[in-house]
Amino acid sequence: MSDTFTISQLAAEFGVTPRALRFYEDRGLLAPARRGQARLYSRRDRARLALILRGKRVGFSLTEIAEMLNLYDLEDGQETQLRTALGKFRAQIAALEAQRRDIEESIAELHRACDFIETSLSERRERVVGRPVIGYAVMPTDRV
Amino acid sequence: MSDTFTISQLAAEFGVTPRALRFYEDRGLLAPARRGQARLYSRRDRARLALILRGKRVGFSLTEIAEMLNLYDLEDGQETQLRTALGKFRAQIAALEAQRRDIEESIAELHRACDFIETSLSERRERVVGRPVIGYAVMPTDRV
DNA sequence: GTTGACCTTGACGTAATCGTCAACCGGACC
DNA sequence: GGTCCGGTTGACGATTACGTCAAGGTCAAC
Asked: Is pLDDT above 70 for B16?
């Protein structure tokens, strides 16, 4: 496991294309060193990329991710900068927790749907046929 | 609380624009009744919209949401259809659980960052100044 | 010394998800 | 009858996140 990576090594490792990495660089999310013209990614760049991709997976835009990474990069910020960063991070945490609730509700709903299907499959095996199966029985019509 | 809604009532209630609702209809996600030309949304449409928006919030594309809603709409499907739906729902559950893990890791990381900032703010108040604050101390360089 | 693999920049294309604007209609109210 | 409010369709524009060429540089291998 080496200490530097070429663009396609890194791309392959994370399942993205070299084009994507260049794009992230264009947007200020990465800034790999160069050997001549070629990009040379460090472990640090690699860790950054991991953060970027996870950020994407949880639904942040590249712009938002760039902001957060810039906050991470504060080496020796002013107190106000630090406080700003703190506020933003806490806001992100709150947003993520809200999103987690959404996800948990979706999971619960899908579980209900699965139960419903399983029940109707077993009922069907008992020759009880010919009535509605899913419909909106699993869909809340009032609770929003 | 009435039983039917106009397009802008519903849009306002859910914080989207009428344009979006028409768009969802265009993509087959909604199919409100008409009074003349005007759309007339039922409670059922409203519940569907809630599902659509939550689906969006958790990162599904409109196409994916349409598929899932169509699965929900199976009234009296064939056994194979039911089994297919079951498989897809279970896959979605797995995907959502993976996403929840991502979110939890992001939350944990943001918490670490917050702790770090808080510590360096208090250290700063103790007149210990002039050294790096965040940097990549909070960023994993090896664990991916 | 040329082939081939890998890299570069730059320009243009594309899919998803709407926003915006134009032009129009129908009903309520003055 | 005019006007305003809210609704309609349709077309075009904007943004994000890349994909897809095109045209070429570099470097080891044969």
From this structure: yes
